[in-house]
Write a structure and sequence with these properties.
The structure holds 2 protein chains of 2 kinds. By secondary structure, chain A is α+β, with helices and mostly antiparallel strands. Chain A has helices at residues 4-15, 25-36, 41-51, 55-64, 84-88, 91-102, 144-162; strands spanning 76-81, 115-120, 132-134, 137-139. Chain B is built from 25 helices and 18 strands. In chain B, helix 8 (168-178) packs across helix 11. Chain B starts with a helix and ends in an 18-residue tail after the last strand. Classes of the chains: A alpha+beta, B alpha/beta.
């Protein structure tokens, strides 16, 4: 979690380079998320007062689009592709295997902050289906069995850093 | 400098490049996913180690996704050779063999780009190229998308140069003669949109390029932007001149960071050359282009919803009329076209409408670009003349079905399209034939399904997508798609009733009638076409609790054949994630159906010499002692 001071600082930095115009709402939200990894409530309030619009409208727009997140991502952010090619190659079983192995549901971040799990509609490398991405690395032609294997190095790393 | 001088300089630089050795590596997103950047690094290191100075040029996509990473080694006095599935490990061999030496390493090659070597595959003679016709993909994979010179040397910006010398009306007439229709999917005649926007009163006017390609399994627009971005910018600039706009926007989805980056570079270069800006090519016409990054909403592909997104609102469509041409972005006249539509424009102006219209069919001119994926051997992109049949696309270009399985269906147009059976494979691909068959051209995503895919499950998948992506404005779309989804979920779980089929058909009609935009109007298409062509699969699920493709997990069980199971082997026992398999060393393994999550790991790990694990459907076909006592509660 980022602190309130950090949020204030980031917001101040970002707002400085945008004009007070409703059309900048989505770019502002994108800039905050790029910096912080998610959209803290305080940041959205800051944007609302900057653009002089109701907070609820900022919330309405932010929750509308798939890109925006409201909880911090895990250290090992895991993305499972649920596009058509991946689905036909067993994508749903992969998602179930990830939920089982990580012990979190899709859209959640584990309590220890290590893993988070997200589903996306298509990452566009259909020839490698089914595909998952762990910490920006693509794992092609994955199977439920290989999911377990793919996670081992990251679980080890998380474990060794803890001790 | 005049355009002629710029063009001559670019051409002489291009020719100078051809006089030496160079290496092309495809590093579009799909190449990167397959490890192309590691290959670039490996070439860099190996060339440095040997003290060779050979340019490594990162190009876009050659459309042969199945063969990525792709590398082309070009030598002035020898054949250009293309290598497929290149790994960093084989790079030293390629450098020693063909960059430094004269051994083309044909055993590692996909083929050559010139004929002459009888032992090599001559790529232009591969069956797929007999069918293909590359108009907007012709430079993709051959030029550096980050080089303005490469584009100009290969004919770029001469369309704009010509356009600025004729009147806007003449451009629109040329478009009309060409018969170009919008490549976003609906196929609206392009010249009509341009004409409406030109005639509309009010200033300023805007030109928007729709690059919000949200259809899962479709990536043509991404490839065009990543491999040859200048042709889209050139097309937009011609559009700006024709309709009288000074400002353009490329609306790209944020999920395409590389496309955004390459468009950004191209825009900067075009401005530096004076091809964008306050005085385009010295003509006095002013045109600027900015990028707007979409935040991820499938519905934003709809024109009025896209405009709402650009204005900083929820991306919800509105009633038309007024059309965007009259009241678009900030209520000003706006021209909105798809990436590919703009990409065709420079060539049409440069080579003339007749040239473009000489390809294709009566009602659909030119070519169409498709992304082939699913159970097809050669997944990737293809550009074919309109009128090519689906069979030619699947078999000649796609190379048929993987592992020689039985073809079942081809799904065109993503969540808005339909699933067509074998019997319709010979219909020509054009806007009108596809619509008649209950599908649509859509953006161009084509998914091939084989006997291992369940059509009810496929329809459920697309509905799930549409229901999630419905913006919620229209009740029928928001709730109707969800109700339809619930019914399909019941059917795939074995809880369906025969009257559900009529109910889902009635709901489908209501969703179509009660939705404002294309998302809702077309969301029922996957269900309607699977019911039209694969009704027997629905009936099997409902009446026999039987999934013919053995996909729907609640209608299947895994079973270990006792007489095939090797008692000494414990692969399945050790790997089962839910510890559902009983039986130690020396015993026949048995699956505890209560614990089984149906992930299929046991089937995957059972050694092929035993092949002891099978999927059974319906559940009742399981030999009786192993029948689960009660089905898990849902």
């Amino acid at each position: 979690m980022v602190t309130e001071e950090q949020v204030d600082q980031v917001i101040a930095e970002i707002l400085g380079s945008y004009r007070k115009d409703r059309k900048n709402l989505v770019p502002l939200l994108q800039a905050v998320q790029t910096k912080l990894g998610y959209l803290p409530k305080e940041a959205m309030k800051g944007i609302a007062s900057f653009l002089e619009m109701p907070e609820v409208d900022v919330w309405g727009v932010a929750t509308f689009y798939n890109q925006f997140r409201f909880v911090p991502l895990g250290k090992y952010h895991t993305v499972v592709c649920m596009g058509t090619a991946c689905h036909l190659a067993g994508g749903r079983l992969i998602l179930e295997a990830l939920e089982r192995e990580l012990d979190i549901k899709v859209g959640e971040t584990a309590e220890d902050g290590n893993f988070s799990l997200e589903r996306v509609a298509c990452i566009g490398c259909c020839m490698l289906a089914p595909v998952i991405i762990i910490k920006d690395k693509i794992h092609p032609k994955i199977t439920p069995f290989k999911v377990e294997e793919a996670l081992i190095p990251y679980k080890h790393e998380a474990q060794s850093e803890k001790s | 400098m005049t355009f002629e001088e710029i063009s001559n300089k670019a051409k002489s630089e291009w020719e100078a490049l051809q006089k030496g050795n160079y290496i092309l590596v495809g590093t579009a997103t799909c190449g990167r996913a397959a490890g192309a950047l590691d290959v670039v690094d490996a070439f860099g290191k190996e060339l440095k180690r040997r003290g060779l100075e050979v340019p490594i040029i990162q190009v876009g996509c050659m459309e042969l996704c199945y063969a990525e990473p792709l590398v082309t080694i070009s030598k002035p006095d020898s054949l250009r050779v293309v290598y497929n599935n290149v790994t960093p490990e084989i790079v030293p061999r390629l450098v020693a063999g063909y960059v430094a030496g004269d051994d083309p390493c044909l055993e590692l090659a996909l083929g050559t780009l010139e004929g002459g070597d009888e032992e090599a595959v001559y790529i232009p003679e591969l069956p797929r190229y007999e069918r293909e016709l590359r108009l907007i993909l012709r430079r993709c994979g051959y030029i550096d998308p980050e080089s303005m010179n490469d584009y100009i040397a290969n004919g770029g910006y001469s369309g704009l140069e010509k356009a600025l010398k004729i009147s806007p009306d003449e451009i629109i007439v040329e478009l009309k003669k060409s018969g170009l229709r919008g490549r976003g999917g609906a196929g609206f005649p392009t010249h009509r949109k341009w004409e409406q926007c030109r005639k509309a009163k009010g200033t300023p006017k805007y030109v928007i390029c729709n690059a919000d390609e949200g259809d899962p399994g479709a990536f043509m627009d991404r490839v065009v932007l990543e491999s040859d971005p200048h042709q889209v910018i050139e097309g937009m600039t011609i559009a700006g001149y024709a309709v009288g706009a000074e400002q353009g926007y490329v609306y790209v989805r944020a999920e395409y960071p590389l496309a955004i980056e390459r468009v950004r570079i191209a825009l900067k270069q075009a401005a530096e050359f004076g091809f964008l800006g306050d005085n385009v090519m010295g003509s006095g016409f002013a045109f600027h282009i900015e990028i707007a990054a979409g935040a991820g909403a499938f519905v934003s592909g709809e024109a009025t919803a896209l405009v709402a997104a650009m204005e900083g609102r929820r991306s919800e469509p509105r009633i038309r009329p007024p059309r965007l041409a009259e009241a678009g972005l900030w209520n000003k006249p706006t021209l909105l076209n798809n990436v590919k539509t703009f990409a065709y424009v420079p060539s049409i102006i440069e080579r003339g409408a007749e040239w473009f219209a000489s390809n294709g069919t009566e009602g659909s001119k030119g070519t169409a670009v498709f992304a082939l994926a699913g159970k097809v051997v050669n997944s990737g992109l293809a550009e074919v003349p309109m009128g090519t049949t689906l069979r030619q696309l699947v078999y000649d270009i796609g190379g048929g079905i993987v592992k020689d399985r039985q073809f079942k269906a081809v799904q065109i147009g993503g969540p808005s399209g339909g699933c067509l059976p074998e019997a319709l494979l010979d219909i020509p691909i054009d806007y009108d034939s596809l619509r008649e068959a209950g599908s649509m051209m859509g953006s161009g995503g084509i998914i091939i399904m084989d006997e291992d895919n369940c059509m009810v499950d496929a329809a459920r998948f697309f509905l799930d997508f549409s229901a999630r992506e419905s913006c919620g404005k229209c009740t029928m779309c928001r709730l109707g798609t969800l109700q339809m989804l619930h019914i399909l979920e019941d059917i795939t779980a074995g809880r369906g009733k025969m009257e559900d089929i009529d109910l889902v058909l009635a709901l489908a009609e209501d969703v179509k009638a009660g939705s404002l935009c294309g998302l809702g109007k077309t969301a029922p298409n996957p269900v309607l076409t699977t019911l039209r062509y694969f009704r027997d699969e629905y009936e099997a699920h409902i009446q026999e609790k039987f999934c013919p493709a053995k996909v729907c997990t609640e209608l299947i069980v895994y079973y270990i054949l006792p007489d095939r199971c090797d008692r000494a082997c414990e692969h399945c026992v050790l790997t089962c994630p839910t510890e559902a398999i009983k039986g130690g060393k020396g015993e026949v393994k048995i699956i505890d159906q209560e614990k089984c999550s149906k992930c299929g790991t046991c089937l995957e790990v059972c050694p092929p010499e035993y092949n002891a694990v099978v999927k059974l459907s319906p559940v009742s076909s399981l030999p009786s002692p192993e029948l689960p006592k009660r089905r898990s509660k849902k």
